[in-house]
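WARN retry 2 of 3 for item q-0093 after timeout on previous attempt; input resubmitted unchanged.
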Amino acid sequence: MITSMTGFGSAEKISDKYSLKVEIKTLNSKFFDASFRLPREFVKWEIEIKNLLENGLGRGKINLGIDFNIKHFDQPPIQINQNLFDAYYQKLVEVSNSLGVNGSIELFKMAFNMPNVVQHQDEATNYITYEELKSVLEMALSNCNEFRANEGARLEAALLESRLNIELGLEEVKKLDSGRIQNLKTRIHTALKEIKDKVKVDENRFEQELIYYIEKLDLTEEKIRLASHLTYFDEVIADPLAPSGKKLGFLAQELGREINTIGSKANDAGIQRAVIGMKEELEKIKEQILNIL
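OK item q-0093 returned
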């Protein structure tokens, strides 16, 4: 079964306390490569989120965005450390007085901006648990995988069309190849007869060389292997469990090897045209495979 690495899925949850929206975008990649845009308070769950995405999506370039907004705060989102502020302010006043400098407002601003005077509370995770976040993530994952499956069906149709065209090209090769060797033998023997009176020929040696030459041009093994690869191609696509992108990538290399060998051994214009057509279809397959999980 074909699954695309291109996908998009989103999900959201709105409660009386908060609103949460999750978006997942995926593109093709040889490995699992995830980037996150998380609220600051969710960073502590980053490992759990990464594992959830990797298990749910497999390989691919993953972009995750999470938006979280609290509707009503039970407590102020920041706290002022009054004792620390007073200590900073008094020290600044002492220094200011010793220098004969006035500027109480500026001293206030300086004390207020000192480290740890303003303390941000970890409010977000007081309002939502990881299990609540996980349920929304799983909904977004499900929607993303549905998108990938639909895109995979489109890819599968394109792959099967190109695979069929390669098979038709192979049938054309078989048809053109059926009398090719015999015609070649006939032409060689005819040419030999024309020069037989002028050149002395060792018949036994000639037949041995002819057999060796013919064997180098024989396409039987390549045709059998190419047909076998096409059959396995169908099996990989039909497999409902295993991801097929990497297998199809290796298989495309084998298809290309047999097609190229047929082209180099054929010595026939018609077969060469069929080979060019098969190569064009194979390039289409290779392009599609890059986006398959």
